[in-house]
Design a protein that fits this description.
With 358 residues, this protein is an alpha/beta fold. 41% of the residues lie in helices and 15% in strands. Strand 5, helix 5 and strand 6 form a beta-alpha-beta unit. Helix 4 packs parallel to helix 5. Bound molecules: nicotinamide-adenine-dinucleotide and thymidine-5'-diphosphate.
Length: 358
């Protein structure tokens, strides 16, 4: 069970961002063994990784981070050196209807992982060139909501509003507490909204692409005036790679696209791209926009200052929104079977559950 230069446990590797992280690490670092530990909830799909599943340095273990025995088994069996922790319940709307799932996975699950890391890394044995590291992948939503101006920096106080962001904030605090109290080597990054291939179609961008394709209403919450700072997922995974390999223990980095869009403007841009791709007359897709009841406690604006990451590690977002959206739309339109697979069964979007099928 030994590998020459390190065994990295990636939790949530079958999800949206996790699958991009696993693919990048498996292809770029043949000297690492990547152990993808994932429960395969509705949001996790092994088809996301079909291109790398047969690689020698990749292992999948189906498991739940709320089960401490399963985590200990993985640490023991694979001699885990480092953890990149992405497993989470990740959809704000679901956190409003089922907060306890978020408490269990995002908080309790994180503590089980921290305890395992603390126990197994208490002995100083390390593989050459490898350091122990617990890398917590977090979100800008822990900082709450901005007004018209300003950006979230690493110094911004935590002020979460949704059960999702409160659960991620709690987990971040616990990760820092394990560093300060037990000396566990940790890093945390807080990223803005990602988009790109393999994004589960309950989130705004893939949901809109799917509904426009199918001529269904595109639900826009409230007046569509909320603002998000969008980042192409591969720019995020590049930052994760840099931080994993170079950040000093205890550090926090914010990651963002410097790319703020009002939801309604973003949807109009997407409608234009979709009209062109589907050979529809200009304006056809925009007629599907449907303003619906707002999300309770809906954060007004997120925007990230990522200058520390740029200065310390030389990271910069590379993909422009127009190009990233174009690539994303192309991917969804050429992978209808993926959409079919991940949305089959009794799956319904939050909006459909709440408002259309009572
Ligand atoms: P996702 O919902 O697409 O994937 C989550 C993955 O975690 C799935 O594969 C799921 O099966 C797995 N999982 C859920 N509960 C589990 C459990 N109890 N045990 C083991 N595995 C479990 O999420 P995502 O959008 O890829 O987000 C990944 C991480 O990045 C999350 O921690 C999220 O908070 C963070 N993040 C996401 C964004 C974004 O825009 N999507 C932005 C910043 C940070
Ligand atoms: P989402 O993709 O759920 O990400 P988050 O809530 O984590 O930022 O939503 C992005 C924005 O789009 C957010 O302001 C809520 C809004 N939204 C809609 O207007 N309609 C929808 O159907 C969804 C899912 C989100």
């Amino acid at each position: 069970m030994n590998s020459p230069a390190g065994n990295i446990m990636v939790t949530g590797g079958a999800g949206f961002i996790g699958s991009h992280v696993v693919r990048l690490f498996v292809n770029k670092y043949p000297q690492y063994r990547i152990v993808n530990f994932d429960k395969l909830t509705y949001a996790g799909n092994l088809t996301n990784l079909s291109d790398i599943e047969k690689k020698q340095n990749y292992v999948f273990v189906k498991g739940d981070i709320t089960d401490k025995n399963q985590i200990h088994e993985v640490f023991q069996n694979y001699n885990i050196d480092a953890v990149i922790h992405l497993a989470a319940e990740s959809h704000v709307d679901r956190s409003i209807s089922s907060p306890m799932d978020f408490v269990m996975t995002n908080i309790v699950g994180t503590v089980h992982l921290l305890n395992a890391a603390r126990t197994f890394w208490a002995t100083p044995e390390k593989r050459e060139g490898m350091r122990h590291l617990f890398y917590q992948i977090s979100t800008d939503e822990v900082y709450g909501s901005l007004g018209e101006n300003g950006l979230f920096s690493e110094e911004s106080p935590y002020d979460p509003h949704s059960p999702y962001s409160a659960s991620k904030a709690s987990a971040d605090h616990l990760v820092r507490a394990y560093h300060d109290t037990y000396g566990l080597p940790i890093v945390i990054s807080n990223c803005s909204n990602n988009y790109g291939p393999f994004h589960f179609p309950e989130k705004l961008i893939p949901l809109a692409i799917m509904n426009i394709r199918d001529n269904k209403p595109v639900p826009v919450y409230g007046k569509g005036e909320n603002i998000r700072d969008w980042l192409f997922v591969k720019d995020h995974t590049k930052a994760i790679d840099l931080i994993f390999h170079n950040a000093l223990p205890g550090k926090t980095y914010n990651i963002g696209g410097n790319n703020e869009w009002k939801n309604i403007d973003l949807i109009h841009l997407l409608c234009k791209i979709m009209d062109r791709k589907l050979n529809r007359t200009d304006g056809t897709s925009a007629r599907l926009i449907s303003f619906v009841k707002d999300r309770p406690g809906h954060d007004k604006r997120y925007a990230i200052d990522s200058s520390l990451l740029q200065k310390d590690l030389g990271w910069e977002p590379e993909v422009k929104m127009e190009d990233g959206l174009e690539q994303t739309v192309d991917w969804y339109l050429s992978n209808p079977e993926w959409i079919q697979t991940v949305t089959s069964g009794s799956y319904k979007t939050y909006y459909e559950q709440q408002y259309l099928h009572r």
